[in-house]
Design brief:
Belongs to the carbon-nitrogen hydrolase superfamily. NIT1/NIT2 family. It holds the Pfam family CN_hydrolase. Keywords: Hydrolase. It is a single chain. The chain is of the alpha/beta class and 283 residues long. The chain has a single domain, classed as Carbon-nitrogen hydrolase (Nitrilase/N-carbamoyl-D-aminoacid amidohydrolase, 4-Layer Sandwich). It has 6 helices and 18 strands. Strands 1, 2, 3, 4, 5, 6, 9 and 18 form an 8-stranded mixed β-sheet that branches. α1 packs parallel to α3. The protein is globular, with a radius of gyration of 18 Å.
Length: 283
Amino acid sequence: MLETDTPRIAAIQMSSRGEVAPNLARAGDLLADAAKRGARLAVLPENFALMGAHETDKLGVAEPDAAHGDDGDTPIQDFLSRAARDNGLWIVAGTIPIASPEPDRVYAACLVYNDQGERVGRYDKIHLFDVGLPDSREAYRESATFVAGETTPVVLDTPFGKLGLSVCYDLRFPELYRALSAAGAEIIVAPSAFTQTTGHAHWHVLARARAIENLATLVAPNQTGSHASGRQTYGHSLIVDAWGQVQAEAKTTANEVVVADIDRNRLAELRSGFPCLSHRRLG
């Protein structure tokens, strides 16, 4: 049952550092702020719990999947469950490193918790950022430390409508968003750690395009600023409505919460009066 026709959603921007505990404390404060501002759904950025000095740092803090009852400490997952319950928030938890069968690689897992603190969904990032940036020595190879997830789209039923999950580099692959849309997604999240270079060039156009193409609200919290590795991320966390209009955008280069009210009736009107999704002839 839908809770409201105008849910308030928060995109949480962070400048995560190289130690988990301070990042969790900061995320806790930002989630509490989102709840105080009336948000019922809050989305954290990619790698919110750790942006380490080295790519391999994530291996040292990787957790077993608590939902599977695996043995071991799970401080990040425990924090998320507690924060969701204490704040009465649904939380999309950016990504955290979850152990894989391979000792030297982990999953970039986007976890979803309901407002009772129960884990209700998981999506493992499928498109890994293995790139060299044009006209630059900047290069990344996420596949060295991450295992790509299964390609089945993840769409969850929530009190705010159907929620589709994606992560960062996924924004460059519109076929994933078509699949999420075909599965009924009305809100799509894209927690990110877009670099300064790629963000400046493409962040807004990609976020708006994915919203427009699929007549869906897009919530894209981003990392921002300088991190322990020297990596620079772009910020400008966004909430974009189904017509491609920016409803909220982070204006600082620091930790920040932005909120917007999503009009589900307006979404239904758009999809009814401008039925481009049903006009598709390919795919």
